[in-house]
TrEMBL record:
Record's protein name: N-lysine methyltransferase SMYD2
Keywords of this entry: Chromatin regulator, Cytoplasm, Metal-binding, Methyltransferase, Nucleus, S-adenosyl-L-methionine, Transcription, Transcription regulation, Transferase, Zinc, Zinc-finger
Gene Ontology cellular component annotations, sorted alphabetically: cytosol; nucleus
Role noted for this protein: Protein-lysine N-methyltransferase that methylates both histones and non-histone proteins, including p53/TP53 and RB1. Specifically trimethylates histone H3 'Lys-4' (H3K4me3) in vivo. The activity requires interaction with HSP90alpha. Shows even higher methyltransferase activity on p53/TP53. Monomethylates 'Lys-370' of p53/TP53, leading to decreased DNA-binding activity and subsequent transcriptional regulation activity of p53/TP53. Monomethylates RB1 at 'Lys-860'.
Native source organism of the sequence: Anser brachyrhynchus (Pink-footed goose)
Transcription regulation as UniProt keyword: yes
Residue span(s) of domain MYND-type: 55-93
SMART domains associated with the record: SET
Enzyme class: transferase
Length: 436
């Protein structure tokens, strides 16, 4: 049931954005919270870890999904979802049985296999390509360094290894282009708490350029992407989304944009750098740290963040928590608690606590994070909404209903704009408010 009328891309147009290549432009005014357009996934793949809790076909989250009788590893709402997903699932169904424990292609490889299959079965333009076709995706091939080329060759090898039984492949050069296109145009789908659910291709959504002060946000309803205004948009204005986490200071954001998308940003935030000082806030001490001490601590913080990202794959939760606490101690000598590097490690610590079902521990970190988060992020942010949501659910679990209600209402206020008032996530939160 949809209360919003299906939006026509009529109020929007593709255009040549000065200095940015092609982009998307508004032809009329859009109010905050208004749906600009939606885009069904060209193809999508559910993360292996989410099997059983979400439908492999439509990504719906529900209990009592039924198993694929052949591989017993994919789960569906019903026969209809299973039937519809079969052209994609058959690429993996028998291979998963044959490879057993050794079946481990990355999500990028799984998604790319689905694109190749879709291009075969559906060569004509799809409903997801009203403004931009998959074939037109930018690859930035000329900007790939040796390291990136090597990673792509590994992906190509995995594609041949795990999918050759059911597919014919284009030659190596064409596959390099396709993987490069997927790397800069693919989307990850997250749930309302920003947990990773899977990866997908949304061609029309990929037309939008990036800004660190975006005027739209992309959310997901199953495998449907929806794009809503989070600022008023005037006729003739370009429509911008954000490709990255906006918590970090200008230099970090641009490093990330260069590395993943091969450009640097010239938005207002990047030009004025007006939030950087707050984001890198230094502790007020009688004997203030020297510029060199601050520089060294920033370097240390970036190393810890990178080290922790890798450590997540092989260290135990208690070891991870120790890394967080040690680094927070060390950085805390120079950085204020609201400093984004402190917040980053607190967020990681909160994640470990949630994983260990240490609700009090998670709540302690979350309460320190939420205020500075609301300052650093734009007014409507999924990061802020999901933090309120986690806090609300933690309070409810710990029987602090007044605090829980307050936090959940803060989450809903943001989500009504970003997700739309009738989103199933919002109905679920409202139900949590009534049940308690
Ligand atoms: Zn389903
Ligand atoms: Zn199967
Ligand atoms: Zn920017």
């Amino acid at each position: 049931m949809r209360s919003e009328a299906a939006p026509q891309p009529g109020g929007l147009e593709r255009f040549a954005s000065p200095g940015k290549g092609r982009g998307l432009r508004a032809r009329r005014r859009y109010a905050v919270g208004e749906l600009l357009f939606d885009c069904p996934a060209y193809t999508a793949v559910l993360a292996v870890g989410e099997r059983g809790s979400h439908c492999d076909g439509c990504f719906a989250r529900k209990e009592g999904l039924s198993k694929c009788g052949r591989c017993k590893q994919a789960f569906y709402c019903d026969v209809e979802c299973q039937k519809e997903d079969w052209p994609m699932h058959k690429l993996e169904c028998s291979a998963m049985c044959a490879f057993g424990q050794n079946w481990n292609p990355s999500e990028t490889v799984r998604l790319t296999a689905r694109i190749l299959a879709k291009q075969k079965t559906h060569p004509e333009k799809t409903q997801s390509e009203k403004l931009l076709a998959v074939k037109e995706f930018e690859s930035h091939l000329d900007k790939l360094d040796n390291e990136k080329r090597e990673l792509i060759q590994n992906d190509i090898a995995a594609l041949h290894h795990f999918y050759s039984k059911h597919m014919e492949f284009p030659d190596n050069a064409a596959l390099v282009v396709l993987f490069a296109q997927v790397n800069c145009n693919g989307f990850t789908i997250e749930d309302e708490e920003l947990s990773h659910l899977g990866s997908a291709i949304f061609p029309d959504v990929a037309l939008m350029n990036h800004s660190c002060c975006p005027n739209v946000i992309v959310t997901y309803k199953g495998t449907l992407a929806e794009v809503r205004a989070v600022r008023e948009i005037e006729p003739g204005e370009e429509v911008f989304t954000s490709y990255i986490d906006l918590l970090y200071p200008t230099e970090d954001r641009n490093e990330r944009l260069k590395d993943s998308y091969f450009f640097s940003c010239d938005c207002r935030e990047c030009t004025t750098k007006e939030k950087d000082e707050e984001k890198l806030k230094i502790r007020k001490l009688n004997d203030p740290p020297s510029a060199e001490t601050v520089r060294d601590m920033i370097k240390y913080a970036r190393n810890v963040i990178e080290g922790f990202r890798r450590a997540k794959h092989y260290k135990s939760p208690s070891e991870l928590l120790e890394i967080c606490e040690l680094s927070l101690d060390k950085m805390g000598a120079v950085f204020e608690d609201s400093n984004v590097y402190m917040l980053h490690m607190m967020y990681q610590a909160m994640g470990v606590c949630l994983y260990m079902q240490d609700w009090e521990g998670a709540l302690r970190y979350g309460q320190k994070i939420i205020r500075p988060y609301s300052q650093h992020y734009p007014a409507y942010s999924l990061n802020v909404a999901s933090m309120w949501l986690k806090l609300g659910r933690l309070h409810m679990a710990l029987e602090n209903r007044p605090a829980g209600v307050k936090a959940l209402k803060r989450a809903i206020a943001i989500m009504e704009v970003a997700h739309g008032k009738d989103h199933p996530y919002i109905s679920e939160i409202k139900k949590e408010l009534e049940d308690h």
